[in-house]
Structure prediction request, 724 residues.
Amino acid sequence: MITYNSSERIFKLDTPDTSYIIGIGAEDYILNLYYGAYLPDINLWANAERIKSASFSPANPHIPHEKFSTDVAPMEYSCNGSGDFRISAIAVRNSDGNSVTDIRYKGHKISKGKPSIAPLPSVYVNDESEADTLEIYAEDKVTGVEVTLIYTVFNNIDAVTKSVRVTNGGKAPVDIERIFSTCLDLPTMDFDLITLYGRHMKERCREQRRLAHGIQGVASKRGSSSHNQNPFAALLRHGATEDNGDAYGINLIYSGNFEFSAECDYSGTTRMIMGINPTDFSWHLEPDESFQSPEAVHVYTNEGLGGMSRIYHRLYINNLVRGKYKYEKRPLLINSWEACFFDFDTDKLVAFAKNAKELGMDMLVMDDGWFGKRNDDTNSLGDWFVNENKLKGGLSKLIEQVNDIGLKFGIWYEPEMISPDSELFRAHPDWYVHVPNRESSIGRNQYVLDVSREDVRDNIFNQMYSVLSENKIDYLKWDFNRNISEAGSALLPAERSKEFFHRFVLGTYDLMDRFTKAFPDILFENCSGGGGRFDPGMLYYSPQIWTSDHTDPIERLTIQFGTSLCYPASTMGAHVSAAKRTGFETKGNVALWGTFGYELDPTKLTEDDRQIILGQINDYHKYYDLIHYGDLYRLIDPHTDHFKCAWSFVSPDKKEALATAVIMRENFCHLFFLKLKGLDKDRMYRCEETGEVYSGALLMNSGINLSRVIWRDGESKMLHFIAE
Ligand code: DGJ
Prediction:
């Protein structure tokens, strides 16, 4: 609910358990008065009195200097060059050549529901009654630049979304040099910053550091959200834990270059900004032109990191993921990549399909290598026609055979890439991302295709459209296997060259939008060398994302734990592979925390393996709803316990729970008591595996003794509890 008190000039944005409070101060400065647990009050002006801590801070000449300075005030959206020396959310260079920016309140509108910010992805409402939206209109009087701060609060979930639209309302052109989606000033710095770092094969590991005076943060300038840092950050109050205490989450719905920065100033406050990375960015606006920033999603809870994650999960399941497979059961797939790489033909895939069907799988996915003349990664990206040397009789013949066996069929693409050795490159040598007079770097033998161009997008769309419309394809894996260097487009004039990265992301979103609209029945899975583009922007187009190319379950534990800080299980692509290190049982138990599937040669399984797989597939069906729609509780985190880890899913009515524990390394010293969370302490629960009946109180406070159940490296156990 959003209210405006016109005598106090205060906006109150309330969710069930949180309040976000904005005040309009002297000289129409827009100030943040509070964000945290729900408050009934609006008497908050004292929160804005910060002048005591001013130090060499210039001030507005029209307000008594002992009262206010933008340098210390809690600014709702911080401007560059006008007396606030902390990190700026916005900087607009005007026709005089300076980038002094100073926005003040001009008006506002409160409305029901949530407007779309297309062509950018965003959280949406299923029904207008789910949310209210506030638009605060602000203006820089000198340049005429208008800034709209857009907020949506949800009425049944503790999330606030924020984005910003800038319109050049002046008479001269301007250039936006910084435009962050959100700025949040908190009055203290007693927080740890939590971010997700990694690399290819080791994405989204959790890192925690104490905030310190100065600027700290994470960013990507790789052209995608990246394996290396995720567009997610959380502030955890000192003393807060997984289960209790203040946690502030912030996640950017964007798949390109981003920056998150937190600055703690000398007076002990914290400012957070999150948005498009200003490095290599600017945007030219002629009079009357507008620019819309991506959307940031804020979550606050006093139920610790676990509570924060469950809010993100619920919001993303219901208000971000779209399409047929939002709630429809996803097919259990087997993917050819790890079993074949480029070495397959029709017969081999048909044999896969037969065996997969016997095991109860639903879909065969033919990964990389089916097009052009591709037998390795040196060629053919951009040539999206079938390699009939491999698929004799063509694609439809293969699909017919797979369908006759009773399986659906999926295919792999890497639409935003081009191999120098391809027919597409020979026909259009200026279609790759490059800058004049400079040799381009190469990554995995490929260039990036310039999808900021409409003609390039049309070509790729038409090529892919023929294959997708002429064949019965149920699933599409959308890959992206390099980062962008020497970034530029042959079509962009020099003065707009810094628009390239954002135009590239808009091009990707446009392509995805066209495909998801043209083929609403196809299940899309995003991928970028594993999880290099695991972000909420991608989740708007594909309900699942391949989490990592590392499929060993022990390595996957930190990856899945980190990913789960923000993203729900139903979005995490997780497969059982043939990788040797860990046994099949644990592979299955870990992959069940995700979309579940297989990545192995089903013709080469031993009878024992087949029996285990039959059991896993049974579990997949049995626990599908619990895992996809239940509440995740992280029980033991592998980032902090180096021997074991555990997690559980609890049904929303608390009548059912599934707990999984994994031994990463045998611990010769310690016993292992597994304590559950999120149960009803007064109910009795029967453990399906042992038949024992325990109270919720016992399971959560004493825990169950697993010391003699699992202890060796790589062993794991799933325990299913049902309320009596
Ligand atoms: C990277 C992906 O992460 C893999 O799963 C596979 O699809 C390969 N690309 C194919 O080149």
The first strand starts at residue 2 and ends at 5. Residues 607-629 form the longest helix (23 residues).
